[in-house]
Amino acid sequence: MGNDKKTACKKKSSNLQEKLKRLNLTRREDLLLHLPLRYEDETRLTPMADAAQSAGNVQVEGEITDCQIEFRPRRQLVARLADASGALTLRFIHFYPSQQAALAIGNRVRCVGEIRQGFFGAEMVHPRCRVVLPDTPLPQALTPVYPTTAGLAQSALAKLIADALAGLPLTETLTAETRAQLRLPTLWDALHFLHRPPADVAADALDTRRHPAWLRVKLDELLAQQISLRQAYRARREIGAPRLLASGALAALLIARLPFALTAAQVFAVSEINADLAQPYPMQRLLQGDVGAGKTLVAALAACQAIESGWQVAFMAPTEILAEQHYLKLTQWFAALKVEVAWLSGSQKSRQKQAQQAAARTAALVVGTHALIQEGVDYERLGLIIIDEQHRFGVQQRLALRQKGGAPHQLMMSATPIPRTLAMSYCADLDVSVLDELPPGRTPIRTHLARDGRRDEVMAYVRKKVAAGRQVYWVCPLIEESETLQLQTAQDTHAWLTEALPDLNIGLVHGRLKPAEKQAVMAAFVAGELDLLVATTVIEVGVDVPNASLMVIEHAERFGLSQLHQLRGRVGRGAHESACVLLYAEPLSQLARARLKIIFEHTDGFEIARRDLQLRGPGEFIGSRQSGMPLLRYADLEQDADLVETARTLAETMLTKTPEQADAHRKRWLGGREELLKA
Ligand code: ADP
Ligand code: MG
After folding, report:
1. Does 398 lie in the same domain as 257?
2. What is the pTM of this model?
3. What b/e string do you get for 270-300 counting C-beta neighbours within 10 Å, with b at 16 or more?
4. Residue 139 has what pLDDT?
5. In terms of DSSP bridges, do strands 341-344 and 365-368 run parallel, antiparallel, or are they unpaired?
6. CB distance 416 to 393 below 8 Å
7. Which of 235, 340, 427, 587 has its CB surrounded by the most CB atoms within 10 Å?
8. Which residues line ligand 1 (CB under 6 A)?
9. Are residues 359 and 277 in the same domain?
């Protein structure tokens, strides 16, 4: 008997542990840092007669006069609660036996919820209820509402947190001087305040989350993030990497053969990169630049530095089409310099692949897809890895990369500009170079929005452009649910365009084509043999055909902002006036309308990214699932941009002056969760 009870007890507690774990609450500190989502004002009771007129949540108290399970049509628990002024119905569609017991006839119950007018008069659906005695006092202050998980009641969680608060104060990680300067309370005071606001604090004062107590918490959180990333940054400096100290002769040769001059931004980025490559620890630099800013050339010049120093370079792109474009361009640039360029992709036959892998072992420059970092590829002297469109690679690939060939220098490129605050927080372990100007002579792209019904006008526009010698992209709708359907649509689109425009040479490219077929179609388009290219989003990244000056995107409302921006960036690359037509189908959702408005009004990738961040929030924006990055829980990068700056400086100071404090601070906030940060 006793044993049974013990097991039951154990089971219950392990159940609780599990639920807490789901909320990432494994240590006392975690409970203390688990802060309210919002506050409920339960300091007052509303008489039931008045409750019906109140908007939002109200608190009522009365006696249960009736309680039964009804079936209409679904099983539900329906109770009647009455006070001296009136009565109302309590309705539960999901309920536990314990709830039913609490609502026993004759019990005195306090309920918080929103009143709505039901078929049988005023009712509350799923109110929060508590059995009380006639003399149970009302709370004096706001009641916190915590984020919780199924099966863990607010009251149970609140009790655990209260217990944690009753223990010893947490050690303070900020100096008194810093706190005074920033006018912030100690963490312990801030936590006390937020978990148990004093009686005189109103809910609005806390809801904006700019109260000093909230600011302290948010600063702490941002500080932990900065410390973690800066520690990773510093740790890398302990790892050795080859110093690439070439004279720059090879780069000079490449530049001399170009038909254009580098932009000032390119020159500056190259100098930043070369300075990093000359260091005895691995570079990790992110090269940001809008679509068409000329990142490939900057990468090629970095490659020159490594190759001239006698080291190999791997150049990796996320798709085969893009990798191949790079391969063609780089071969063209490097052949004249007598530099061997090898090609490696996932789709080659195994014998061919072995030959390619053997070549990759020693080639000066190896270009390809993620096959570059797969099993079986060994480099003799890998000195630099260049990753194009790095945000498209997942955690696994980035980890594999870390494990490959010791610690080569890394240059990552991204055409999805990362807004400043986001870059400062989530990318604090990287150095960043920015190409903030486009090469001269580009003509701005004109963007047109057109309802699907105006297709005829669009066709006329296409004819006109082709008659003038230009080429056109026609992008098929994105169908996320089904690749087969997407393929089908692309084929249908190709068929009807071929019929509608019989004089044009029209090609089709999509993800299911064999590499050789894809290559043939792209080559024909590059050579100008095709007037119009029907494509799925495989052309989203990096494709470069200057004569293409019109892009039509079907069902533009289905695409994300950065996708639209990337797609549109495929035109406007030559001297010809370029345009992008966004066809959309009505009705538009609010979000789709907002996106189309932004893409219509802006061409600057950084501005678009900033607005995208506002629309979607950082989690969606950086694809947290893909990046594996723990997200910020309290700080808001837009609202708290000032705190990001403060945290950054503070992190550097702490890491230099009081490294143990910095470490303790990081552990408090990130516990064991930060490993992925470094992936
Ligand atoms: P992205 O930054 O989007 O990767 P690319 O590297 O594909 O851009 O460059 C876009 C085009 O601009 C290419 O055709 C490239 O050769 C050309 N380009 C690069 N740098 C310059 C420059 N300084 N002046 C003129 N054209 C340039
Ligand atoms: Mg590119």
Report:
1. yes
2. 0.74
3. bebbbebbeeebbbbbbbbbbbbbbbbbbbb
4. 87
5. parallel
6. no
7. 427
8. 260, 262-263, 266, 289, 291-297, 415, 439, 542, 544, 573
9. yes
